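re: that chain from earlier
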Amino acid sequence: MKKRLLGVLLVTCVTFGLHAQKIMGYYPTYSEVTEIQWDHYTDLAYAFIEPNWNGTLEVNAASNQSDKYRQSHWESFRTGCTNNGVKCHISVGGADKSTTLANVAANSTYRATFVAEIVKFVAGDHPNNNVPLAGMDIDWEFPEQVGTIANHYTLLKDLRAALDTRGTQDGRYYELGIAVGGTTPNMPFNAANYHTDYFNPDVINYIDYCFQMNYDLGYMNYANNHHSSLKGMTDAFSYYVNTLKWPANKILMGIPFYGRGSSNTNSTENYVNFASSAAYNDADGVYNGWTYNSKPVIEDKVAHLCSNQAGGVLIWEVTSDSKNSSLSLGKVIKDAFDNSCESLACSQPALGNDKSICEDPVTLSAGVTLQSDESIKWYKNGSVIGGATSSTYSATEAATYKAEITTNQGCKKTDEIVVKQSGDIQATPTNSGKFCASGTTKSVTINVTGGGGFYNFYDSKEGSSVISSGESLVVDKDLISEGSSKTFYVEEAAGSVTTLGLSEKPTKKSSWANLTEDLGWNNHNQVFSTYSKVTLKSIDFLFGYIGDQEHTLSIKILKYGTSEIVYNKTFTYPDYGSANWSAMNTVVLDVELPKGQYELATIGSKMLIWQTVNDSGDDLDYNSWSEPGVASLDGAISPDNPSWGVYKNANQGTFNWKFSTGEEGSAACGRVPVFVEHESCDNNDGSDNGDGNSGDNGDGNNGDGDNGENTVENIITQTLAIYPNPAHDNLNVSFEMKSADNVYLNIYNAVGVLVNSAKLSNTIGDQFVSFDTSVMSGGLYFIKVQTSTGSITKTISIVK
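^ sequence. v structure.
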């Protein structure tokens, strides 16, 4: 990357558009996340984070150290990538920080530490990153000696092996790339060394992508001392493909968003600082003394890369672009790939949302009908699946799957999907699942962990209506009568959608608000809450037309009462026919939000929207715009007057908020059972001990057991063991009795029916009971060990 800017470990975010090529943009630590134009890129790179001398990651920089990795800065960037459909990677190195990387690579102990640390970071299993990334790359500038070249090669081999091992464990494929310098021996300038001398060519066997930094070449004798000309790119690309024999689809060529002087090649200027219509449209990217990549140059470069099936482009750096869409180079790149590569026509696979899998296979569909000249390949964790040549594939295990459609003319389009293992929720009742309505413990709460945090509760294994939905279920006498037990079942609510807010245009107290103007006190942010992890799928807006110009809707979502942005995207409507004026427009957000309270702002838009403000103070119907366990619309707030708090008499042009909970297929593994018992309340637990005398503990005292210190936990010590579990033909129970008492061992099936039992009379010391389970059906059971002072219930399973 550019000398001043490359210095730390680089984090990259990647998404795939309608073309197979990557558009990889680098984002430096010293810039602001709000400057990123997310929709221009398929990949984004956080530049950078660096290793310490011993191979650990340097993650403790102060908040004002803008040249370092900063935790809050990284989290904002990563969240932006996630919410805008951009996949994230991390890259290591950079021009002015590669010395540390070189020292780490040269020491086997430090290298092993670094490989372990960075792979955990990529996998989302690190204290500083808990979200899996798409991969990483190494930006070592440059290993110029024989020894450092060998160390570079060894480091890449070690990383590939570790990433593959972790990927197999996680059911994902983690990408690995390298950044290399821009010069090659076939360029006009006769140099002592070229950047292709600074790596072992066999490294291509261990990487997915090579990021060729094809800029800063003003000294290579191209016309006008151009530092990133079309000829410079085609020369370098030709050398890698034709001389080194590297696959074209692994090569991304560099495009700079800055200029260098044509007479003084050491001088630089970011494109945003000289962007104009003349500079943007200049034929060869030589304007006012600067050499750079203009719209015509970029279009010619992209056309060459498309026709030669290249991997795509990398950009240094994304915040140097103009935010004016009519001058944006990022938009030029995206449009050029869409147009140039689209001309190599073939079907675009569309695998849909990520899925979950249980015991039965999940059918993946490319969503296309293959044409006569098209063929399809399926990949699992980066490897081709043999024999998978139809437009559907039956996935039998968790992994990252990719569909790739190609033609003989060179078209290639891909899409990928993550299939995750389902059935990972756990349900646990309080108080060991026992309560007595007239006693101290009047209810039991079934708490659930795992999944998205929103669940459905049932009273049968299959069918039946939902008893309740939410994060937990309180079970009391209204659900179980005294002396009875019941098995409840829990599953994650899979893909259910809730719609909140206004559904149609109000007729009273409403008018058009011109968002191109400063509305002052009449500007309103919408306040809303989420009660579990949900996805805000879309919102409808009423748009008004303000003349023959480009219209934009800017949407920001912030954590309530803070300046922390969790979503930021601008939607563009370039002409009259691109939006429904004075009618509903569905704006798709697809932003995942954890439990919390948020604000939605439209400041910065260039649009009329239909605003409702009841000046008389009459509230809108916010109280009804709520779904328990999912979300609520809470009201509005004035960003200029936060002291006003949340008020319920304004709506900033939003309609039909759609929230979804869970994931497609998340209930695939069925319902998780939980056993709960409403005990009799006669002076002790009084539960049925299995001898037919309900409430009688077997000592002739009809439940008047010892309520002192000799609790069941004290009598049956920590020696309780139940094995094997799962059981097949026999189930053994062993424990030690601290003091003499009667012990009852009862086995219940999943619906609470007693199926086996044993009784030990006035026993003390080591105990052993064996049950014959050969005649029992396979499934989930509960074993209850009871004394006069209480009971312990454990879950067991029988397999056949």
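The first strand starts at residue 10 and ends at 14.
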